[in-house]
Design brief:
Elements (H helix, E strand, L loop, with lengths): L1 H19 L10 E8 L10 E5 L4 E5 L5 E5 L13 E9 L2 E9 L4 E8 L1
Parallel strand pairs: 1-7
Antiparallel strand pairs: 1-4, 2-3, 2-5, 5-6
Amino acid sequence: MKSSLKLLALTVLVVFAATSTSCYKKPRHGIARIIVIDGITKLRVPNATVHLHQKDVDETLTTDYNGLALYDQADYTTLEEVPVDQVLNCDVSKGTKIGSGIVKVKPGETITEVIPIY
């Protein structure tokens, strides 16, 4: 009798422990890799100005020596906010050359957009 009660209690405990833990994981922030290239030579453009904007975002970045600028949602949202898909307008310039495009940032993903300037 006591062993069956112990077995029942153990079974209830195991079932409770298994069902009380959640498989939900908070989505990670998305990252956008913006590569700026010269539209004619197809070479990457260092030190270009990248302006990302929409109603909640207004960020200006500068490309590195490889023509790469990184946008991370974690840099611009609080940890309590769940990241959402963002569609950002992207305006790029260096000297007299300009270009534009759309950058779609999705939670948990790293996307790469190539923006040519002319």
